[in-house]
Each structure stands twice: as C-alpha cells, then as structure tokens.
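Many introductory courses stop at the sequence. We go one step further.
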Amino acid sequence: MNDTIIAQATPYGRSGIGVLRISGTKSEYVSKKILSKVPVARYACYTDFLSFSGEVIDHGIALWFPKPFSFTGEDVLELHTHGNPVILDLIIKNILLIQNVRIARPGEFSERAFLNGKIDLIQAESIIKLINADSELHVKSALRSLNGFFSKQIKDIIFQVTCIRIEVEASLNFPEDDINFSNHDIDSKLDKIFLIVKNILCSAKLGSIIHERPKVVIVGPTNVGKSSIFNALTLNDTAIVTEIPGTTRDILNEYININGMIFQITDTAGFRETKNIIEKIGINKTLEQINSAQHIFFVLDSTFSLYKKKFLISNFLKIINTNTKFTIIINKIDQTKEEPRIKKYRGGNTYIFISAKTGFGIEILKNHLYFYFTGNDNCNSETVFLSRRRHLNILNHVKLCILDIIKNWSQENNVEFLAEGLKNVQNLLNGITGAVTSKEILNSIFQEFCIGK
C-alpha cells in the first residue's frame, strides 16, 4: 500500500486510445515529471507526455483525481495516449524510473478501493463479473451488485440483527438495570430476518445460475429427433441429421441466448442396444453428460405407443440422479397432427409437444427453459444480482443459523444462546461485505482481475 502502482487499463494491442492508470502517493510527482504540471482536478487536459530527458513521447489527455475523490481513494492520474504498444511501453518505462513506483498486481486498483473503503467486497467482486458479462441480463445483474443493491440488502439484515443484539446484550451486561424485552417482539423480528434472508438467497441463487450458464442436455432413444431439436434451438446445422439410427456418436455443445440468459445446449448419442464400439463409447459419454446436467430434455417420438413411451420413461428414470430435473419432449407432432403445447401430468412431469422439423413449439420450449431457471421460488428476475458460490455458502449457513436460533429461542428462551447465535450471524454476513474477511479470501478474489483494474 506504500507503493505507487501503474498499469495499462485498456486491452493490450493496437487501438485508437490507450489508457494508463497510476495510483498512490507518488502520483502527483509522476504528473510533474511526465506532464511538467498537475492538471486541474477532474478536468480533461490535453497535454504532452514527456520522457525524463524532456523529449515528447506523445500528445493526449490527462485526468487528475486527488484523494479521497478517486476510484481507489488515493491520488490517481490517468493518461490517455494513442493506443500504440510502443508509446505505452515508453511512458511506463519512464514512470517506473521513479522510486517506489511499480507495476500493479492483477486487481490491485480494485483491492485498494476496497481497503480504502470506497467500495465493499460485494461491489469489488461484481466489477470482474461486469467486465466478463456476455449477455444483457448478465450485465444488468452485475450492475445491480456494483451499484450496491446486494450490499444494501446484506447491510439491512446486519442492521436488523444489530437491533436485536443491542437489547439482548444490554440485558446480559447490565442485569441490575432490569432491562426487559418482549418475547413476542423478538419472535417477530427473527421471523422478519429469516424472510429477508430467504428472499436474498433466492435472488442470489438465480444470479449464480445466470453467471454459470446452465447446462441443458438432450437425451433419448435413437431417431427421435434430438439432433434436429439441437439444431432448431441453436439455429445452426451443427448436428448431422439422417434417418439412420445412431448418427450422433459424439458430444456436441453450443451456447444459446434466451431473453438475455445464456444456456449451454448439449446433443448426445441416442440410447439403444448396439455392437458398434464407437456408438457404445458415444452412449457412455451420454451417461456422463446426464450426471453433469442442470436440466435434461428427454426426447420421445410422438408416433410411439403410450406403452412404449411409459416404458422408455421408466428406464430413463432408473439411470438419472433423483435430484436432476428434466422435461419430457414429445417430438414429431407434425406426423401425428397434434398442436404444439405444454402440459403437466400426474406426478408433476412436464411434457412439451413440438415439431423440430417445422419449428412448431420451439418457442414454447425456449420460454419453458427460461422461466424454469428464472421463475423458481417466485424470485423476481428484475431484482437479481450476480453472486458467487462464496455468497451462497454464507447465506445458506446464515439461514440455518437463524432457523436454529428461532427453534432454540421458542423452546428454551435462553438469552445467552440467543446473543451468541446473533453474533455468529452478524460475523457471517460481515464476511460477505468484507467487514471481516481473511487475507486468503481477498487474494483469491482479486487475482481474477485484469492488471489495470
């Protein structure tokens, strides 16, 4: 933190503009050496960029952000040069001649912003999500986190917990004052905290799903139209489609965008008894894909008899994990003159009737997939923020802790246990925002960043 750091903030390579960022106590000295002046704060200044010997390296824009009104909370100087790697390298080499100035580590600018209290850990983590976002929904979710939406909700829980702790700790530490509080009041406050945590966890899970690109695997017997469905969803002719059973023998993957959400669609080899060694390998790979899927499309032919459909579904249920969710797709309805539709039967299984050949029902299938992942637990996708597995693990732990507190409080009314439980909940939540975070976690987070961020 005593060093002044420098890095290129724009991608490496040739471009119209290249941006260098300098942060730290020597930033003002750097400005005087490279620009022969310090620009007016927060005003763009067109100027020469000089070497230590006074030669002009380039002309461009300089921006000066004196502390604490900067991204990092330190003195920050930004130099906008022509995007020639040679020019940028020359300026960096001259700046590195100054004592205690060094190249920044990955994510060090954001790390300093966090350590100087300009952003919390949730906002710092959302920066890398925003940079790597590859869909509109992904960008919006990352921005909500960066703008403090997630942080505000976590801090709201911490505030609610603190309010109860003040009453409870006061009664423990000052028993002579005979401080009383209503058990019913504590009950209602704990219930309110649990509901808030439940809602945040719902949004956090959806945010995590959005980031992770859910994997949807298409499986089923041979010749039911799996590859045709794959091509219809991806709007590509990636998969070879023929009337010959067992055409698909390898795993095919494509990404599709549905309403701003990215899904990985996987086509697989069809199930059947075969002596072909290559096809057997393909079927084994299909079983591997089933185990790694977030959702499965089990495809059947609409011309199959009801008995055959039930038999194939029964065999399918024997090979999948009981926790794996699936949708049954009835394809080729153009041959049976049926209408495209979605229907739920007894047992809770969802059936979607489509024709991959004509395209009938493909939009129904896409909408079903989107709402399956964004509509669970009545989560509002408009309030979703991007979260990490670290956040989910902590929030799940918080949820269990609160349930444990509620249970023990209703049974024992033990004030000491209540105080200790609330303290643990607060410490866990502080770990999300970064108020209490180990050095190892910080290092692992900021190492994901690019050098100039």
